[in-house]
Design brief:
Length: about 650
């Protein structure tokens, strides 16, 4: 005779395998013997949801709530049952109760928003169907932040469709996102095949490391296997992948599987992981062609050549398996007039799948590429600066407002590189009477006058983050930021006084930084604390390929624990913190962490507010412990939720991302 615990394990295995009636029978036997087992009543309710018996689901989950009313998960499940029963008011009440009990509950946040917007599951998720006769199949794997429209992927699609080629673009991120969350709505996608628990939301930016686990990818691999079989059968002439840091593991696994099944398939990769010719091949080793940096002007001709049966080599802006040995890489041409690239319209996507994001969340907009200043010594994004005309950007915003979008996020790190363009854009938005909410990241500069910020506010800007990074005149010079602390103070005061929510950043431990600098930075942040809403990012310095610190480390007295060329060759993207330090004064990773802790503790005690991304970084750096904002450190699982951040990322452009 099985014990209660054994019976529960058997029932759970039945449920995971889809044998719902067998699972239900055992669970009912358990609660028949032990009526107080709230977790089993909850399980029975989830089973009832799966079989669309929503009245029974409400009854069973209601029993669980009555027995144990302070379990947030039970209220969330009860809200789901009420939603499917057609009782949105009761569902909303349940989700609100969840957030009263557990404010960081990501699923409940999304469910509450979905009920209020009347947008939720079930949704019609398209099956993955590879077309026959393709010249180019363009794919994007998960994870990517929530159901965000992938604007970089869309620019690549636009570049390909300017040719006469037959192209199919599939955003697998959104397909798998909805598959996973629709199952989770029924409580059946919380564990992997081995029984490992998943994070609250594996699409949350803070949880992207979950995707490094093979068994997490394995949750979606049956669909990938089916897609691989279709690719082998349909034989597209090239398969392209947009690869970034978050989806690199999934993309590499797919490429290996594809090449094992079909070695002759031409695999073309691009994206953020392919920005530099010496870095990309180490991160994505199984490519056939790799697009380096932007691909607007190179992807079309390459795809056309491949479709014609050719295998070109030694192309500017492209690496290939066919290149001449010892070839010196030549950068490809860049699109100089960004107005020549039509903005994304996502013709290949079912926009309803992105609806919660583009109608009620952040709609991505790219107004510029590169960085006007381009001299910050730690920065790896010092690319040529180009910007679109104010009219073209306003045209894009206006078109999407007609389709329901309201909140727009400028996805670039130097939105105001050309302040006059920004001012003119705001003038256009005001003239057209577009009722929008706008977000972006600005560089501190003298041209950011009080009247300039007032114009931004009139146009609809509600959130602006400043990449200040250094907080004293000396560290601003060390980082080569190009402005003084007086300008920082003036920009923050003028922006904050308009009512715009304002956030700031900090970088700690650059070469030459002293303990006296840290003292001054702390005091200057405190001086400014009433002029910003949160310190969103606090990062110890990392060496990144593409930065001046890596290009000329000796100039900045950066030393390596071992032979420099060997370390940079082994770790081309970023050498581990343990393998380098700087002199005069001596700064290694331990020094940076001690400074981070001192800065955090002092600023917190003086009322400085830290955003979720900063708290997450502090958690990760300070030995796995979590500062709770109230003076204590607690275990990392209770960190305030970090998924609500608005992260302005580098301009995607046509970076195959």
């Amino acid at each position: 005779m099985a014990t209660i615990s054994e019976a529960i394990r058997i029932a759970e295995s039945h449920q995971q395998a889809g044998r719902l009636s067998e699972a239900e029978q055992i669970f009912r036997q358990v609660v028949g013997a032990e009526m107080h087992r709230h977790e089993i009543w909850h399980r029975l309710g989830l089973l009832a949801c799966q079989t669309k018996q929503y009245d029974e689901a409400v009854r069973c989950i209601g029993r669980a709530v009555a027995i144990c009313p302070k379990v947030a998960e039970y209220h969330n499940s009860l809200g789901v049952a009420y939603y499917f029963l057609g009782k949105p008011a009761e569902a909303e009440s349940c989700f609100q109760r969840v957030l009263d009990l557990k404010p960081e509950f990501v699923e409940a946040q999304r469910n509450l928003g979905a009920v209020r917007q009347r947008v939720s599951y079930p949704v019609s998720i398209p099956s993955i169907k590879i077309q026959s006769g393709l010249d180019f199949l363009l794919l994007h794997f998960p994870p990517f932040d929530y159901p965000m429209l992938p604007s970089g992927l869309a620019y690549v699609h636009n570049a390909l469709t300017r040719t006469e080629l037959r192209v199919q673009t599939i955003d697998l991120n959104i397909v798998f996102f909805h598959q996973f969350h629709q199952k989770r709505f029924y409580g059946i996608a919380d564990v992997t095949a081995s029984g490992a628990l998943l994070s609250a939301d594996i699409w949350g930016y803070a949880n992207h490391l979950e995707w490094e686990r093979e068994e997490v990818m394995g949750l979606f691999w049956p669909d990938v296997d089916d897609m691989l079989a279709q690719i082998v059968r349909c034989r597209p002439k090239a398969v392209g992948l947009s690869v970034h840091a978050s989806n690199r593991g999934f993309s590499n696994r797919f490429i290996r599987a594809l090449r094992a099944l079909s070695p002759e398939t031409v695999v073309v990769v691009g994206g953020y992981e392919c920005e530099f010719p010496n870095v990309g091949p180490t991160l994505i080793p199984d490519y056939v062609y790799m697009m380096i940096f932007e691909a607007d002007l190179t992807i079309g001709p390459l795809a056309a050549a491949i479709a014609g049966g050719h295998r070109p080599k030694d192309l500017p802006g492209v690496l290939s398996r066919f290149d001449t040995p010892g070839r010196v890489f030549e950068p490809g041409p860049l699109l100089q007039n960004l107005d020549e690239a039509d903005f994304p319209r996502y013709q290949w996507a079912d926009l309803e799948l992105y609806q919660p994001q583009y109608r009620t969340g952040y709609f991505p907009i790219i107004a510029s590429r590169g960085c006007f200043w381009g001299r910050c010594r730690f920065c790896a994004e010092c690319f040529p600066y180009r910007y679109r005309s104010a009219k073209k950007v306003a045209d894009e915003i206006e078109e999407w407002t007609h389709r329901g979008a309201r909140t727009f996020q400028f996805n670039e790190s130097d939105f105001n590189g050309e302040p006059q363009m920004v001012y003119d854009l705001c003038t256009e938005i005001i003239r057209r009477n577009l009722q929008v909410s706008l977000m972006g990241q600005l560089r501190v500069q003298k041209k950011n006058t009080a009247e300039h910020f007032q114009q931004l506010r009139r146009a609809g800007f509600t959130y602006l983050r400043f990449g200040i990074d250094a907080w004293s005149d000396h560290t601003l010079r060390l980082q080569c930021k190009g402005y003084t602390f007086a300008t920082v103070l003036q920009n923050l005061r003028d922006c904050h006084n308009t009512g715009v929510q304002t956030a700031v950043n900090m970088v700690i431990g650059v070469p030459g930084e002293t303990e006296e600098d840290v003292d001054e930075m702390i005091q200057n942040v405190i001086r400014c604390k009433d002029y910003f809403d949160s310190m969103d990012f606090v990062n110890p310095l990392k060496l990144r390929w593409g930065s001046e610190y890596v290009a000329d480390p000796d100039k900045y007295k950066i030393r390596f624990r071992g032979e420099k060329e060997a370390i940079l060759s082994k770790y081309p993207q970023s050498p581990p913190e343990s393998l380098w330090y700087s002199e005069d004064p001596y700064i290694d990773h331990d020094v940076r962490l001690k400074r981070m802790e001192r800065i955090y503790e002092t600023l917190r005690k003086n009322g400085v507010r830290f955003g979720p991304p900063a708290l997450r970084t502090i958690k990760e750096c300070l030995h796995g412990q979590v500062p709770d904002g109230g003076g204590e450190y607690r275990r990392r699982e209770t960190l305030p939720n970090a998924d609500a951040e608005m992260a302005a990322t580098p301009a995607e452009g046509a970076n195959m991302h």
